[in-house]
Protein 1
Amino acid sequence: MLFTSGNKRGIFLFLMLSLSLFSRLDAADIRASDPFIDSLLETLGPEEKAGQMILVYNSPYAFLRDHKVGGVLVMQNMLKEPCSLRIHLRRAQKKLPIPLLVTIDQEGGAVNRLSPLTGWKKTPSARELGEWEPDSVRSYARRVAAKLRRIGINMNLAPVVDPAVNSENRETYMGRKNRSFGNDTQRIAPPARAFIKGFSDRNVLCVAKHFPGYDVTTNSDLEAAFSNADTQAIAGYASVYSAIEPLIAGIMMTSIRYRAVSDTPAVFSSSMVSRARSISGDKIIMTDDLWGAALRGYVLPDSTVHPARYPDSAFARLVESAVRAGNDMLMITYPQKVPLMITTIMAMAENDASIKAHIDNAVRRILKAKNKLGLIGTKAHR
């Protein structure tokens, strides 16, 4: 069964329900807050709060210390010297006032960050895992998670829960790259749940992606991608997240533009982020890489500006869009932009009380994830 179509009336209901649920859930986060998390949050200044919202390409310890970032992204090239990486991460986790979410996107198949390590050159893709029994998927995921844990990685930006075939019966980019478990919720949810449980068994959190569902045939990191899915089809894609929500630590937004809902990329669309929030509650909602060519091009359409000369003013607008949409954590693979991101977020908080409240809630959710991992314990790590 493929995801199907709806009508125009569904667009209005979709938007209103998403915004209503977002408001109630954000308020519920405050009421249900952990006293320890709240007390820790109160000790953080504006710069520290802004830093916690940033997930940056893994960088030297001094950089992480000076900018007080919330997390780092480990890439394949960094695993060529796993011992050095392990020592670096242990030092950071021990010395930083608030330890890091150390992330990787270890999906398997074509996206196999562990390939430099002995015995890990090849790993099964999501399409292959989708054919396995759930117990076998969980056992495999447990083994991967144990390896990540030994290195110092505590969060996996996976699984991909996007459809292999979209509502127009076309194979999606994720399907073509074997990064999808299957065509619909019934095929995707069982292996995805088993995958996440295996990581949880070894205390590694999982972030599902790419919300609400990567249903286009092109790579949206490199070029603007538009989806023709209507609201009912979008709801079908998003239903996978509802099916796995109790197990995940967060949701990553996509940069695809869903014409039925918004002319903006989903990651910058408050209605789309609100929809993710209505499912995820107090889990982290994060962006994909904000330095992606397609997102930079969204701020400067038809721009031929070389990345090294991309205007700071344009990137600041991009950061503002991500925060205003309601994202909790912003990913960036260009560390030199972190200072600009921090000053941008701080300025937004200073000038807008509602943004300041959102930033507090975002950092609260990030601290909750760290507390679940045992990174900050039951007394302030300061």
Note: The radius of gyration is 20 Å.
Protein 2
Amino acid sequence: MWILPIEPERIRTKRLLINATTKPMVSYACYSSNPNGELRELPDTSQGKWVLLNNMMQIAEVPLDRLPETPWCVEYRMSQLGIRDREYNVTPPTGVLRIPVFGDSFVLGEGVPIEKTLTNQTLQILGPTKFELMNMGSSGWNTHRELQSLEAAVPHFHAKRAIVVFTANDVEITPELESRQGYINDLINIRDEHLDKHQEKAWYNGPSRLVRFVGSSLEMRLIGNETIQWYKDMYDERYNQANLMRFTSYLHRMGARTDCKIAFVLYPLMEGLEGEYPLAEVHAKVAQMAKTAGMPVLDLAPAFKGQRTKDLWVHDSDHHPNGKGQAIAAKALAEWLRSLPGFLDPPPTASSTTEAPRSAEPSTRPAETEAAAPAPPAGN
């Protein structure tokens, strides 16, 4: 350890680069390396107004001259309606089944190019001439906000089918649960600023390089285990009863719709996929709640079983599913949708007419949503 320059791995988390000149804004998630070959080099920032932000809970600006620390990026280009997708006519083309897909950053495709997102890869399997899968994902959204978006978008876009994608942090939590999570590693993002503060006070932070190397590894494993238990407690009535009751009511509002058939999909966090998925009991509980609400349910966790978890991360600091992970999910989702009786049946041609885009139409997002650029979220 003394002879070789061995140190604990220094994780440099992603940052958000925003081109504030363009309308709608174009932003880039920037990373220190390109482990999967899916990222591209930084855009030219010599012209226009650019802002670089950190990935902390309290978002703050970073001097633009530090951009070379994160030289690899993925682009987020948003439509006029603030979705990471193309512009859509109000009504779908004749004979095309439109399916908006609601969810958080896993649907948005945080950390992956747009062609590798869940909606795009699923669409390529189903057939882009017969279907439209609208990417209605937004970083940091929970089920309540997804429901608000659904209730606005379904009638506006004349959608007769919709998909809601759930991840384990989609339920609202109490202040007590919030205080237990340091967000050093929430199983999705690792935030170096939080990690630095934690390590300054850590028991292993001394002169011994060996102790620091071993201690930091053990500490991160302990933090991961504590976070898994934190997720489980979010779905335990002893700790989160009122929010779970509200969550149940949101599911019943989805399942009770008569104008649109909704499919409910559970997307696992990219954690512990080699063996028994650590949040399997959470998925089982939520799946039963959604079925009781009257929705068909797909749990994607079995499709990931046996995969090497790290191979599916966007980056060591960003544990969103990369293009390979999204491909696994898309294949399982497409096969399941095809098996649902009547779900992919073509729409009646008599009621399907094409209109010109209406840029002044009411927003399909809830009024309290953030700006279109996907700012680094708290748990997503």
Note: The chain is about 30% helix and 15% strand.
Protein 3
Amino acid sequence: MAQATALIIDDSTELRSLLESILPYSGYRTVSASTGEEGLELALKLNPDVILVDLELPDTTGLQVLTELNQHQVSIPTIMITGYGSEGVAARALQLGALGYLIKPFTTEEVLSSLERALTVQRLRREKEQLTNRLETYVRHFQTLSAVGRALVDGLDLDQFYQRIVEAGLYVTRAERCLLALSDPGRKQLHVVAAHGRPGHTEHPLPFSAGDTRLQRTLERGISVRLHTSPGSPIILQTNETVSAVLQVPLRTHDRILGLLSVDRQDRGIPFGKHDEQMLAILADYVVIALEKHRQPEKVPAAHQPQDIRSAS
């Protein structure tokens, strides 16, 4: 692994010097310690990519170093260095979380191969953890969308439904604020009907032309817009607030644009991603359905329509 940092914990000056001389040629930076206490301190301070630790140290053992790392909940790929005949103790190191062991004397190829295997295992573990966390996040997001969908089916009051939408938008995108605005095409104005997060909810109409011109594409062309600030290029919302990142999606039917749903971040410069856009677009579709449902009175099913007594006779 290029530019990985290897911490060497061994009381043998000769072995430390050998590893310090060969590892840089394979892209490793090296840090060394001659005692377990010094090595543990460096591990907690520097968080190296991999540790090579001798089983027998002047003040402790490599097993104890591993144990203390576990107690500090620090997960660093560790390779135990042991002498011939100590394989049983090395197996104990594997139980404590070591990703391999080297039996002295070892070759350059053996140490490099052990380092590569340990780093690969650690990388795969981290990728699995990241995928698991992402999956759990997506499950929570879809549960939120499902709850909003149920509120729509249950006929929640329109204003309450708007508020549910902006709360959900805030949650699924990890934004600082979310607002929902409906458009008045005749006057080219936006009316904020719900907002959640930072103060700034305005009751005054907002002109379509307000704010960053790049945001106008949402209402003019019915497309989603994601912006992230760069030095010297602030983003100004329709509400005249300056933010570091914004995502706006249209409330769109087949022939009209009814408004927009917007999330932003003011203090954290983390851009919104494609997943955020997809989640917000689903919420925007829910709003469109709610508006259409509100504007069209429910028809009485034919089976329940009152029958004309005269025609029946």
Note: The CA atoms of residues 151 and 230 lie 39 Å apart.
Protein 4
Amino acid sequence: MASSAERFVGIDVHQDTLEVCVDRREEHWECHNDVAGVEDLLTTLAVLSPTLVVVEASGGYERRLVAEGYAAGLPVVVVNPTRVRRLAEALGIIAKTDAIDGYVIARFAALVRPPVRDPQSAEQQHLSALVTRRQQLLEMRTAEKNRLSTCPDLMRTDIEEHLAWLDNRIEQLEDEVNDMLTNNPSWRQRTALISTVPGIGKVTAATLMAELPELGTLNRQKIAALAGLAPFNRDSGPRKRTRRIFGGRAPVRRVLYMAALSATRHNPVIRRFYNHLLECGKIKKVALTACMRKLLVIVNAMVRKQEPWSYILA
């Protein structure tokens, strides 16, 4: 239960506007989601001294607000919209408007109190942006290659030129990522450590550095949940349903999938674990997901202990 001295702020984010609600609709207003609007909002929030400011993730439109909120020293937390909507349903709030959403987010802040995480440094954000952009261009290149096989002849030259540009830009981005990892002593050491694991290459190591900076600071259960690789129970009474993974960071799972595929062939520990699961009757997809989780847990332990792969095998 929130005390009278505590103030909880919920912010519903849109491309052009921010719907702000403080506590139980005592104060609510709308402001522009631009440089001036965010600056005015943060000035107002600084005077309120809120206990928690919860922002609903909105496809990146919340980034300016969150980054500047952190810089201003405000306790800002970004939450998954699904969690907020589930609370609204539990409270019997079926209607959905911007004002109602802001109110529900404020209620979520007061009731759930999600923990405030350390903000990413500017360098970490830069690395993450480079890795994300590389993945976007890879997806574009795959789409263009698929079009090339069925396109009219008059469009073939255009697509080939675009593919050449994509190849060149992807290579440039990879060089920029490598430069960042090399020039930062801490990242250079951690990347070298992670790369000692058979099955993990440069792309996987770079993605883990960019998208999972918590490596080595959390226990095995929390790091798996953060990546979306922790299986959740779905049991009810005598009925035992299949456990499934949910949520988490998709870019991390994407590279771990490829790393696990490689590790089932070239990593003796993962290969033995994978074959054991298959012998126990697990389907290949389930066994591979378990290998992804085991690979992540091993890497997490290596980073925490600052020990390379050879020590893990010992």
Note: The chain has a mean pLDDT of 87.
